[in-house]
Structure formats: structure tokens, C-alpha cells
From TrEMBL:
One Pfam family in the UniProt entry: PMP22_Claudin
Topology within the bilayer: Multi-pass membrane protein
Identification of the protein by name: p53 apoptosis effector related to PMP-22
Subcellular location, principal: other
Species in which this protein is naturally found: Upupa epops (Eurasian hoopoe)
Keywords carried by this UniProt record: Apoptosis, Cell adhesion, Cell junction, Cell membrane, Cytoplasm, Membrane, Transmembrane, Transmembrane helix
Entries under InterPro entries matching the protein: P53_induced, PMP22/EMP/MP20/Claudin
TM region(s), chain numbering: 12-32, 77-98, 110-131, 151-172
Location of this chain's protein in the cell: Cell junction, Desmosome; Cell membrane; Cytoplasm
Any single GO BP term: apoptotic process
Family from the record: Belongs to the TMEM47 family.
Length: 196
């Protein structure tokens, strides 16, 4: 017998925990200044979801411009932020859903559907940003999309995985609620002479 699989009532907090992890990664992506960075020294380029900063090779001060002055910058920030807000709502709904004794499985499937919407919004923002950034912002030196941008994608991947699990969880309703009696396998002495 499996002590604690995904379809187990004792492990019901695994999915909300994963959503909480996705929220933490989303916060890092929203606040991080490492969406785009210079790949090697001298580090002259740095960008976040909100602004792009450059400096000269000998200069220590960053000169920043707001990406909110561009339509695509507002669109990328808005779509990622809307997805993040819906993700926080889904987390709260998941905690409520798994806190009550009588789990409403249609409610859980609805959370899964909302998580697919979150993933769609976040993917749109994560695709708009690099495409339009490289077209409209002059880049100097070798640059790479860096750690904060990676956290944005990591959050999206976790959300997609949770969405599938939330949508499929009602298929194991009886196992999750503990409504299935355990099956015992035994052999009669005639069929297992070695037991004598």
C-alpha cells in the first residue's frame, strides 16, 4: 500500500504548497532586476520588467529608462501581473477548498481551469518582453535573459503542472476521500502449498 501518493487525503496540502512556491517565484520575477543582463564584463546592461538600465564601461552610475513608456512594456507587465493576481486568488481558493472536510471536486476543477488562464497570461507577458525588448531597446555588448526572467518561466511551468493536477484530481475522488476499502490479497492453502 502506498503510504502517501498524490491522491491521498493526508497529502492534500501538496498542491497549495506548490502554488505558494509559484507565487514566491512570481514575486522574484516581478521584483528582480535580472530580466536581461550583460553576459560578461563590463556589465553595462541591466533590465527588469519595469525598466532598462545602462551605464558606460567606466561609469558606476546606472542610467535607467522606464519600459512603461512603451506600449509593449505596459502590455508585458500587465499580462504578467494579471496572471500573478489570478494565481494568488487560486492559491487562496485552493487553501479554502482543501481546508473543508467535504471537498467540492467541481470547485477544484474550476481552480485548475483558472490556473490555465494564469499560465496563458504569464506566457503572453514572457513572450512579448524579449521579442519587443530586443527590437526597441538599443543593446550594447553581449546580453542574456537572466535569473529573474527564468523565475518567471519557472513559476509558469509550476502553474501549468498544478493546473493539470487540479483538473485531474476529481478522477481520484474516492481515493482522496478514503472511500475505498483496502484490497487484501491472500492465497488458500491449496493454491499455496509452500505456506504449510
Amino acid at each position: 500500500m502506498v503510504a502517501c501518493g498524490l491522491a491521498c487525503w493526508r497529502c492534500r496540502w501538496l498542491l497549495p504548497l506548490l502554488l505558494g512556491l509559484a507565487i514566491i517565484m512570481g514575486i522574484i520575477a516581478l521584483a528582480g532586476r535580472g530580466w536581461l543582463e550583460s553576459e560578461s564584463s563590463p556589465y553595462v546592461q541591466q533590465a527588469s520588467l519595469w525598466e532598462s538600465c545602462t551605464r558606460g564601461e567606466e561609469d558606476l552610475n546606472w542610467s535607467c529608462i522606464s519600459l512603461m513608456d512603451y506600449g509593449w512594456g505596459r502590455a508585458a507587465a500587465a499580462t504578467y501581473l494579471v496572471g500573478f493576481v489570478i494565481l494568488v486568488i487560486c492559491f487562496a481558493l485552493a487553501v479554502i477548498a482543501f481546508s473543508i472536510e467535504i471537498l467540492r471536486f467541481n470547485f477544484v476543477r474550476g481552480i485548475g481551469g483558472l490556473l490555465f488562464v494564469v499560465a496563458a497570461f504569464q506566457i503572453i507577458g514572457l513572450v512579448i518582453y524579449p521579442v519587443k525588448f530586443t527590437e526597441d531597446i538599443p543593446l550594447s555588448g553581449d546580453n542574456m535573459f537572466s535569473w529573474a526572467y527564468g523565475f518567471g518561466w519557472a513559476s509558469t511551468v509550476v502553474v501549468i503542472g498544478c493546473a493539470f493536477f487540479f483538473c485531474c484530481l476529481p478522477n481520484w475522488e474516492d481515493e482522496v476521500l478514503g472511500n475505498i476499502k483496502p484490497t487484501y490479497y491472500y492465497s488458500s492453502p491449496e493454491r499455496a502449498p509452500y505456506l504449510n
